[in-house]
């Protein structure tokens, strides 16, 4: 990295520039991997701005690299710490400044060694980034597939489950489920999720056995104590997405979650060619009964 580059702590004023770096980086990566993806910047920013605002407010570390003269952002990295799960939420460098030391400096600050009981990354398959993530003490555990389909508005068959709208009074129950499935809790992040998406608690005989979130522009997380309960939960989430006038419903499904993937494929959902990987410092959680946050910044 040259002397003309300054690495500093980010501020809220950097959010839009960080998004621009993210968009340029992902557009370049998907083209190099042969699965090109492009998006109109303004509509995508409008969709992702609430997530960026949330992450900036709750970041454990957030660093940017910028040109000293112009102040133009070249890259950024951000992490969150939830109950000891230390997760690298974003790590992007502008395509024309990659492999120049910028990424190494950002990662050292945003994802420092020794932080967290478990260190985790939802990573792309880019080999240059993979090398850095292995050097940071994580290893690939399994791929995550994005499955997308047109949601049906047919009345879902919930069997013996009862779907209850979740409120802030249910934060303890949501976190208890999360702790059982993933070993860690989201804490107050569930409060933010409830402000952004419809949230549901699924009960059997009055006992919470799962939860799910779906909104007009995103979905997840979804979790169940029993993997089989994901089928009725997903039917309900799909019906709610249709009610919200979603033309497409996208879900980020760990590929060890065979029940969810088989169910969604049977419903006509398609698996995207662009896969991500869960990387972590050690195995954790029961991902055969969990579906992550979409878009996939964090679990």
Uncertain spans: none
Helix-strand category: alpha+beta
CATH architecture of the largest domain: 3-Layer(aba) Sandwich
General shape: globular
CATH first level of the largest domain: Alpha Beta
Beta-strand segment tally: 14
How much of the sequence is in beta strands?
A: 25-35%
Descriptive overview:
The chain is α+β, with helices and mostly antiparallel strands. The chain folds into two domains: 5-137, Aminopeptidase (3-Layer(aba) Sandwich), CATH 3.40.630; 147-272 and 282-291, Aminopeptidase (3-Layer(aba) Sandwich). It has eight helices and 14 strands. It has helices spanning 15-32, 41-58, 102-110, 127-135, 171-182, 189-196, 230-243, 258-266; strands at residues 5-9, 61-67, 73-82, 85-93, 118-123, 139-149, 162-165, 198-204, 207-214, 219-224, 249-254, 270-271, 276-280, 290-291. Strands 1, 2, 3, 4, 5, 6, 11, 12 and 13 form a nine-stranded mixed β-sheet that branches. Helix 1 (15-32) packs across helix 2 (41-58). The protein is globular, with a radius of gyration of 19 Å. 41% of the residues are buried.
